[in-house]
Amino acid sequence: MSDPSEQPSESMPGQDNGLKPLSNADDLSLGNPSNSELSRIMSRAGIALANGFPLDEDDDDEEEVEGDYVAVDQEEDSNEFPYWFRRPPTHHRTKLDELHPFVQLLSTSNVEDCIAVENAFPEAERCSRDKFIYRLTRCPELSLGLFTLPLYGDQPKPRATLVGHIIATRTSEPTVTDRSMRLPSEWKNERWSFEGDEAVGHEEGGRTIAIHSLAVLPEHQGKQIGSTLMKSYIHRIREALIADRIAIIAHDHLVPFYESFGFENHGPSKCQFGGGGWVDLVLELGNESS
């Protein structure tokens, strides 16, 4: 299943989630340094200026950059330097930036959060609480969540909010199947679960990562969260060398979205979960073009 809000026309953030280094070199307007307050401060600190910016007097004594500021010697007026050396973003802030997002693996402690996110789907297509517990117990390393943690200033640190997730298991089949989506009845007592001669649920030796849910909270849809999650997830799985492919099922209108990541359309799926009507999509991880 997949988040219905995102379309392939969205720009895709990079593997760093779209957060760019900060710089204000193009935004400073200092005027004539000889007549400015900055010139007075620099002069008292023993820093020469050229065209309004510090001039290195010794190539072997480079300034060190740490965090959002340039390191300077502590002089009488050094407390004024952070004002001049702040480095605000040069790129246009997006709705995703405003969430101050980060991604991390999920665990059973996130079950209630996942249930809230899953409500973005029609009821028949939602993952159940028991399935979340099962999947986040057996294979939490195949999950990924995108959280928001706004800046809190002097207030107590708030709890991070899960705004989107990817939940998956392993299967020995090349596509997502009904049996790979099932909840084994005795999974708490059995390491491997079978119905007849076929494995059901998570197969630890499977070389296909079967994504069962890519979902985003309704109030945060349209902010490139699904795109960010998918791109990060593909990168993590590819770099870990733990599978041959990633598979997902989606409805027709989302096929172009997944194709933009390199997934190939394998036609109508035999999976009848949620009433059927799905399309099989597969990304072969040996294909570096994605």
Automatic annotation (TrEMBL):
Which Gene3D superfamilies does this one have? 3.40.630.30
Cellular component annotations (GO), alphabetically ordered: cytoplasm
Ranges of Polar residues compositional bias?
1-14
Q: Which GO terms describe its molecular function?
A: aralkylamine N-acetyltransferase activity
User: Which Pfam family, any one, appears in the UniProt record?
Assistant: Acetyltransf_10
Residue ranges of domain N-acetyltransferase in the record: 194-288
PROSITE patterns per the UniProt record, alphabetical? GNAT
Question: In terms of domain of life, where is this protein from?
Answer: Eukaryota
Region: Disordered; residue ranges are: 1-37
Keywords of the record: Acyltransferase, Transferase
The identity of this protein, by name, is N-acetyltransferase domain-containing protein
State the organism of origin.
Penicillium frequentans
For this protein's source organism, the top of the classification is:
Eukaryota, Fungi, Dikarya, Ascomycota, Pezizomycotina
